[in-house]
Amino acid sequence: MKKYKPTTKSRRNMTGINFRNIVTTNSPEKSLTSGFKRGVGRNNRGRITTRHKGGGHKRLFRDVDFSYNKHNIPFTVKTVEYDPNRSGFIGLVVYKDGEKRYVLLHNSARVGDTYVASENAPLVPGNRLPLGNMIVGTFVYNVELKNNGGAKVARSGGDYAEVLAKEGGYVDLKMPSSEVRKIPANAWASVGEVSNNENRLLNLGKAGRNRWLGIRPTVRGTAQNPVDHPHGGGEGRQGRGRRRAISIYGKPTGKGQKSRRAKKYSNKFVVSRRKVGKR
């Protein structure tokens, strides 16, 4: 981690990531980048559907490959790059047939390393193979929820899932959230953990740095008026006057409350629910 001299109050505890020791280039591959318009929490009618989003620095989109559909063809890491759209580092890789793609790198990936996506690939970090071919205790990332569905799980900086058991065509996987879920054994995953595991130790230091990321301020419900929030109103400080904390829309929120739908389609795949509340 990079620390700063306390020249101001907000600088005192601010930390950053020392990209100079990790990132190898500042120029992304032009053929794999494009401009894009961020949703900033609005739907197709322009109405806010997710609060506290908007603004932030303009970003260039990197076309990261989460499908890994080129099997049995080795690829070599040419660069390690920063991606403003995610917390992990990405790398430009070149397949043996000459094709270039961006992929999400694991924590110990370096320029010149060679990996492969294959059913018979060695069980080393960076290689990709079906979950059913991995031994119990393996750490994985970029996990598919179904075969050829593309990586969906464990993609944030420092994240990984753990293979706990294999039975009946399914693999029990412990998710980063601590939930244990059944995943089809023919779904693919990459071995290792996502790069940039220092990301969770980051101290932004000041509110403005949050605004650069596109995160807008959150106002406490109890500080609002009754017309604006169920917790609002009252003379002076008031308790919320109800058993459970709820959002502006009346749904349970925060404080370790369960907000999962009772009849969610994936309930039958959940072996153990995630631990909620303070850890």
UniProtKB/TrEMBL annotation:
Q: Name one Pfam family in it.
A: Ribosomal_L2_N
Domain of life here?
Bacteria
Query: Where in the sequence does UniProt note compositional bias of the Basic and acidic residues kind?
Result: 228-238
GO BP annotations listed: translation
**Any one Gene Ontology cellular component term annotated for this protein:** large ribosomal subunit
Q: Which InterPro entries match?
A: NA-bd_OB-fold (IPR012340), Rib_uL2_dom2 (IPR014722), Ribosomal_uL2 (IPR002171), Ribosomal_uL2_bac/org-type (IPR005880), Ribosomal_uL2_C (IPR022669), Ribosomal_uL2_CS (IPR022671), Ribosomal_uL2_dom3 (IPR014726), Ribosomal_uL2_RNA-bd_dom (IPR022666)
Domain Large ribosomal subunit protein uL2 C-terminal as annotated: residue spans: 123-252
Name the keywords, alphabetized: Ribonucleoprotein, Ribosomal protein, RNA-binding, rRNA-binding
Q: Where is this region: Disordered?
A: 28-55, 220-279
Q: What residues does the Large ribosomal subunit protein uL2 RNA-binding domain cover?
A: 41-117
Composition-biased stretches, type Basic residues, lie in 44-55, 257-279
Q: Recorded GO terms, molecular function?
A: rRNA binding; structural constituent of ribosome; transferase activity
Q: What does this protein do?
A: One of the primary rRNA binding proteins. Required for association of the 30S and 50S subunits to form the 70S ribosome, for tRNA binding and peptide bond formation. It has been suggested to have peptidyltransferase activity; this is somewhat controversial. Makes several contacts with the 16S rRNA in the 70S ribosome.
According to the record's subunit comment, the protein's assembly and interactions are: Part of the 50S ribosomal subunit. Forms a bridge to the 30S subunit in the 70S ribosome.
Q: Which family does it belong to?
A: Belongs to the universal ribosomal protein uL2 family.
Report what the protein is called: Large ribosomal subunit protein uL2
The organism named in the record is Candidatus Zambryskibacteria bacterium RIFCSPLOWO2_02_FULL_39_14
Q: Which gene encodes it?
A: rplB
